[in-house]
Amino acid sequence: MSGARAGTAEDTGTEGAGAWAGRALGERTVGYSETDAILYALAVGAPASDLELVFEDRLRVLPSFGLTLAQWAPDVLAEHGAFDNRAVHGSQELTVLKPLPRAGEIRLNARVGEVWDKGAAAVFNVIVECEYFVATWSLFAPGFGGFGGSRGPSRPAAMSGDPQGRAAVVQTLPNQAALYRLLGDRHHIHVDPEAARRIGQDRPILHGLASLASATLPLADLAGAHPADLIQLAGRFAGVVFPGDEISVRAWEGGRFDAAVADRPVITEGLAVFQ
Hints:
alpha+beta, Thiol Ester Dehydrase, Chain A, eleven-stranded antiparallel sheet, globular
């Protein structure tokens, strides 16, 4: 996967986290090939039998692939010192505007949206826009709150009522994190046991975005749609997934869902809407 023509961000120096709100993070034109799109589909669990996801002659690009093209934006914010290595990816949103082409170049613009003050932490919203999608990363940064800003919206009410049918099962693969790393997020915690132990895990963990995208495959089946028909996606990362874990996905009316490994929540406040 290739990229070029990067913009720059202003550094706020010693100012509080709230000073980052509204700051431009630059523009990039990112290129990709059909091979990248197919690798992504395989890395999030697409079966070889789904030729529209793994065969170039029939290829439809999964909309969530766009998140790998935009991963540079939260990285830019980190590189400019907005937060430190305690920050975690709290939640993700994606709104699809039109299908991604099979291959080509896409120009993306990134900025910081709202920065919420949670007291002991700050939440930075990083927004990436292009003609194909709008994506928002919410990054939870301990130690950067207390700057006098708004706390932001309250958490939505827990889902009520019975889920639709039985829970769907996503069987992650032992090599899934190693595959997903090839798409750009090469953080060592996803492959190096020593790095994983430094964050309190006994082995490498799967990328949250890989887990979220994997859940869309059975959710599309439940909705009677194809995974490439996704038009809206959201989820809060509530716990870690290890490569090889079995994820149970429950769906409710309106595209709402959650996911768990055994009795441990891993995605809450989920939303997956298909065209």
